[in-house]
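Below is how a single chain appears once it has passed through the pipeline. First comes the sequence as given, then the structure the pipeline wrote out for it. We keep one example in the README because the format questions we get most often are answered faster by looking than by reading.
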Amino acid sequence: MMKRLSGLKILDEREGEGQPAQEGDRVIYNCRIFLNKGDEVMLNAKQFDQLSQDMIRVVEGERFVDRKTVLGSRQTIAGVEHALIGMKAGGYRKVRISPHLAYRETGIPGLIPPGAVLVVEIWLRTTIEKA
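Resulting structure:
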């Protein structure tokens, strides 16, 4: 179970297999981001045409961007990074992320308003220990 971080709440979880991801591990994950009121942030859709096809994953007819990060490197928003820690490959988490662990008062113009609470679905695809 992940350490409870103020501003991060697990809403749903399905365990994967293997070793839990930990700080320093290189991971490949997919995610979908929603505003707290339920509207999906179309970040994936905006990236499909700009990325190489080997970064696009299709699961049950749904397209995802394969995102890569080293846990603890701050390459993604803090809420997603903390949610990935402790997950196992093939696992799923749905989390609610407070603004201070996401895009704060800046937001992303045209996608995420300032101060937005996010609900993020995360699928951990692969973990490569200690990058």
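Helices lie at 43-47, 78-84.

See the next section for the split statistics.
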